[in-house]
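Researcher: We plan to redesign the surface later, but first we want a full-length starting point. Tokens attached.
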């Protein structure tokens, strides 16, 4: 399946997932409003909502707005991954999360998630690094402001019209498709050590093919754009360690 074919199939997959998440989420909510399963359903539905919101932003003029949603989506899917662990520590964290406190109960334990995936042979996912880099581009940092300034100048002066759509949006669309694939894995796969969420896989027939085809089709695109263009010190490679302050660069990251 080609990159364009995956993009055309994405709304079908999102609709399948949304319908099944609502059906199963309703069952979980009626059974126990604050259970581990209900928490996972809430996060799965938030992830679907954010994915749907990304669609109209997949344009050059709104690419930095898309970054804000990508960061929120990362937090939701990472926390969903964390909340699926079948252990008392996770259930205690879920209790804090439902209490709605002002601490960081919404933040996933990236180290725990990465170690889990590493043991399953998935390699280095760099969840903490990616989350930190996207944070720098979604908060009003100098780097995010420079990106926005470049964006606005492009559509005010007309320079954006001369920009290649494929060159500008290929990495953003790849992120969108990868995010769908990631949600399929963290929500619908029942991996060892995770609580089963009880989805009816017959109701989401397109998702498995999409996930497999996505991994094969966009690997080369991700490899081409995977290097983080932010300067060293502007984000953290380890979410638990403070970053050193970086001096602003004259040219904004692309």
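Model: Full-length starting sequence:
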């Amino acid at each position: 399946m080609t990159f364009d074919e995956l993009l055309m199939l994405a709304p079908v997959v999102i609709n399948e997932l949304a319908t099944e998440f609502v059906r199963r989420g309703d069952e979980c909510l009626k059974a126990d409003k604050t259970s581990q399963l209900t928490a996972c359903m809430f996060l799965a539905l938030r992830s679907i909502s954010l994915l749907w919101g990304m669609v109209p932003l997949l344009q050059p003029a709104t690419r930095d707005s898309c970054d804000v949603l990508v960061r929120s989506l990362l937090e939701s899917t990472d926390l969903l991954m964390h909340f699926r662990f079948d252990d008392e520590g996770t259930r205690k964290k879920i209790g804090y999360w439902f209490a709605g406190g002002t601490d960081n109960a919404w933040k996933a334990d990236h180290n725990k998630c990465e170690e889990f995936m590493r043991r399953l042979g998935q390699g280095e996912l760099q969840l903490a690094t990616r989350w930190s880099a996207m944070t720098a581009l979604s908060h009003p940092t100098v780097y995010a402001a420079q990106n926005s300034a470049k964006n606005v100048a492009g559509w005010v002066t007309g320079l954006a019209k001369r920009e290649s759509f494929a060159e500008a949006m290929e990495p953003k669309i790849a992120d969108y498709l990868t995010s769908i694939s990631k949600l399929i894995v963290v929500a619908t796969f029942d991996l060892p050590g995770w609580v089963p969420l009880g989805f009816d896989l017959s109701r989401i027939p397109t998702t498995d093919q999409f996930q497999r085809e996505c991994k094969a089709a966009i690997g080369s695109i991700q490899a081409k754009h995977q290097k983080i263009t932010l300067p060293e010190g502007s984000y953290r490679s380890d979410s638990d360690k403070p970053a050193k302050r970086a001096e602003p660069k004259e040219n904004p990251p692309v």
